[in-house]
Amino acid sequence: MASNSADRFKKRKRLKQSITASNTNIEESVVNEFLNSDCDDEKVNSIYKKTEEFYDISVSQNEA
Q1: How far apart, in whole angstroms, are the C-alpha atoms of residue 6 and residue 13?
Q2: In 5-64, at which residue ranges do the beta strands (DSSP E only) sit?
Q3: Other CB atoms within 10 Å distance of the CB of residue 11
Q4: 38 φ/ψ angles, rounded to the nearest 5 degrees
Q5: Tens digits of per-residue pLDDT, 6-53?
């Protein structure tokens, strides 16, 4: 049985609702601790560079 776009939309909506995080149990102190924490820029840049080198995302003019 082929599903139509309305059925697919309803399925996606149910899935999204089942995995959406609830914001009722958020501890503000934990959020503030995260927001005020330091970031190791060198580590982030290193990981980004490794990812950039691993995946070839370049495209030719014809592909674009």
Answers
A1: 10
A2: none
A3: 11
A4: -80, 155
A5: 899 999 888 887 776 666 678 889 989 999 999 999 999 999 998 888
